[in-house]
């Protein structure tokens, strides 16, 4: 498959494999005016793994797993054979340099910076995928309403009102707090969420932990556009 902006021009890029990654890369290059050749071994494209492929892009769940306090989990795993995050003593010498960097980046400020970067990358990926789908008229089982919006609808329906506590939304969605706050700020910027102050004087510590800072003030409640 050859595509490009001119005829008879030299091939600038050769992509091996006509799966989702290969075709998406080719499309992006063609849109920039590059000439691209996709090499595929099968009779048609997307007949291997991409034929039955599925995936999720969830910007609100982009926090790295080496969060603050991870050192305690790693230390405990030395003595727990069933630990989901297992560190073995014999591996320690080979992990010294990497491990120091790993723990350094689990500090709260660095972890938050990485979470914010992952959130921005995830949001960009979602928008680019949506744009590609619309430009090319692609039809597949796509759902734009993510886990947080689904959790919000359940919570609001159960409570009977639309302004819900951000901390309660986090429990319902089962996602980390920091990515959730980034998501709500982004939705507020786009006009798809309304943040409210709530009553700080009667709120619990858990509720206050969900406060989103906006215009220098903590907001405890949110109403999302869930349509």
Descriptive notes:
- With about 230 residues, the protein is α+β, with helices and mostly antiparallel strands.
- Among the domains are: about 1-55, no CATH class; about 145-225, Arc Repressor Mutant, subunit A (Orthogonal Bundle).
- It is built from eight helices and eight strands.
- The protein has helices spanning about 20-30, 70-75, 90-105, 110-135, 145-160, 165-175, 175-190, 205-210; strands spanning about 1-5, 15, 35-40, 165, 195, 210-215, 215-220, 220-225.
- The strands form three sheets. The protein has a three-stranded mixed sheet, covered by helices on one side. Strands 4-8-5 form a three-stranded antiparallel sheet.
- β2, α1 (about 20-30) and β3 form a beta-alpha-beta unit.
- α4 crosses α7 and α5 (about 145-160) packs across α6.
Short précis:
Among the domains are: 1-53, no CATH class; 147-224, Orthogonal Bundle (Arc Repressor Mutant, subunit A), CATH 1.10.10. The chain has 8 helices and 8 strands.
Overall pLDDT level: 84
Proportion of residues in extended strands? 5-15%
CATH class categorisation of the domain at 147-224: Mainly Alpha
Class by alpha and beta content: alpha+beta
* Number of H/I helices: 8
The number of E-state strands comes to: 8
Low-confidence stretches: none
Task: Note the topology.
Blueprint: E1 2-3, E2 13-16, H1 20-31, E3 36-39, H2 70-77, H3 92-104, H4 108-136, H5 147-159, E4 164-165, H6 166-173, H7 177-189, E5 193-196, H8 205-209, E6 212-214, E7 217-219, E8 221-224
Parallel strand pairs: 2-3
Antiparallel strand pairs: 1-3, 4-8, 5-8, 6-7
Helix pairs in contact: 4-7, 5-6
């Amino acid at each position: 498959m050859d595509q490009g902006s001119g005829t008879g021009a030299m091939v600038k890029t050769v992509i091996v494999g006509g799966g989702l990654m290969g075709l998406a890369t080719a499309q992006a290059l063609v849109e920039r005016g590059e000439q691209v050749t996709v090499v595929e071994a099968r009779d048609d494209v997307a007949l291997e793994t991409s034929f039955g492929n599925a995936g999720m892009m969830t910007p609100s769940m982009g926090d790295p797993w080496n969060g603050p306090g991870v050192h305690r989990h790693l230390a405990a795993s030395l003595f727990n054979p069933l630990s989901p995050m297992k560190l073995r003593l014999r591996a320690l010498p080979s992990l010294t340099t990497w491990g120091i960097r790993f723990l350094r980046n689990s500090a709260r400020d660095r972890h938050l910076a990485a979470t914010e970067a992952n959130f921005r990358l995830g949001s960009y990926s979602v928008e680019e995928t949506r744009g590609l789908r619309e430009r090319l008229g692609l039809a597949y089982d796509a759902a734009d309403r993510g886990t947080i919006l689904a959790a919000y609808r359940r919570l609001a329906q159960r409570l009977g009102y639309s302004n819900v506590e951000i901390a309660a939304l986090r429990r319902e969605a089962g996602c980390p707090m920091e990515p959730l706050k980034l998501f709500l700020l982004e939705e507020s910027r786009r006009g798809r969420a309304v943040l409210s102050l709530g009553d700080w004087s009667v709120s619990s510590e858990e509720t206050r932990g969900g406060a989103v800072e906006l215009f220098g003030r903590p907001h405890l409640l949110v109403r999302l556009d869930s349509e």
